[in-house]
Design brief:
Chain A is α+β, with helices and mostly antiparallel strands. Chain A has four helices and eight strands; from the N terminus they run E-H-E-E-H-E-E-E-H-E-E-H. The two termini of chain A are 21 Å apart. The longest helix of chain B is centred in the middle third of the chain and has 11 residues. Chain B is globular. Classes of the chains: A alpha+beta (147), B alpha+beta (83).
């Protein structure tokens, strides 16, 4: 299990390659990458992600441990950036390795749902109209109910 | 009891600082909020609607009725937007 919270960009292909290498008993590797997007009609200049050092790592470890307890997983990787990001930049990635794809897919979705509303990150968007904190969505909270 | 109180995102902006050390006799998070609200207008503003806030004690999410017994660090912030 590897959890990284960092301001620097990460190399998606290197991370995926390193994560996938060395398993002979994992039939499925699932990766998800979150990207800063400029919504239609919006003019997103940049995004700043704030986090709670200490709690962030703990929360991500708890979420990843819970995923390992619920599904049959060989390994879990979570990388989440903070600081200054621009449209097209990769914010975060999760990867799961499992003997079977169902576990790998479900665990990756679980990780995403939980780290959206239970990991202490806050996004602030800088657009042509000004600066705004991104509000949490009810649907993100509702998404936790299915687990 | 001396507590480190941390603020994040717009809570930090409204209060105007990220962290402070605060002497309190509050038994619960709600009691602490009442003490903070009474301090200054900026605190009253930040804590005007606690349904818009989340709280963590010693880096674990908790609820507003939670006891502060033994706590070292309390953090207030809006709902999280990771991912």
């Amino acid at each position: 299990m590897r959890i990284l919270v960092q301001s620097e960009p990460f190399d998606l292909s290197k991370e995926t390659e390193a994560f996938a290498a060395g398993h002979t008993d994992m039939g499925a590797i699932v990766t998800f990458t979150g990207v800063v997007r400029d919504l239609e009609g919006d003019t997103l200049d940049r995004m700043v992600i704030e986090h709670y050092p200490g709690m962030t790592e703990k929360a991500l470890e708890q979420i990843a441990s819970e995923a390992r307890a619920r599904w049959s997983l060989g390994d879990v990787l979570v990388i989440h950036r903070y600081g200054d990001l621009r449209p097209g930049d990769r914010i975060m990635m999760v990867a799961t390795a499992a003997p079977h794809r169902k576990d790998a897919f479900e665990a990756a979705e679980y990780l995403m749902d939980y780290l959206k509303s239970r990991a202490p990150f806050w996004k602030q968007e800088f657009t042509a109209d000004g600066v705004e904190w991104v509000a949490a969505k009810d649907e993100d909270e509702d998404a936790l109910e299915r687990w | 009891m001396k507590l480190d109180i941390l603020y994040f995102a717009w809570v930090r902006e409204r209060i105007g600082l990220p962290k402070e050390n605060f002497e309190t006799t509050a038994a619960t998070v709600m009691d602490l909020i009442a003490e903070l609200r009474a301090r200054e207008e900026r605190y009253a503003m930040a804590f005007s609607d606690i349904t818009a806030l989340r709280v963590a004690i010693d880096q674990e999410l908790t609820n507003f009725d939670a006891a502060l017994d033994g706590a070292r660090e309390v953090a207030f912030f809006p709902p999280m937007t990771g991912g």
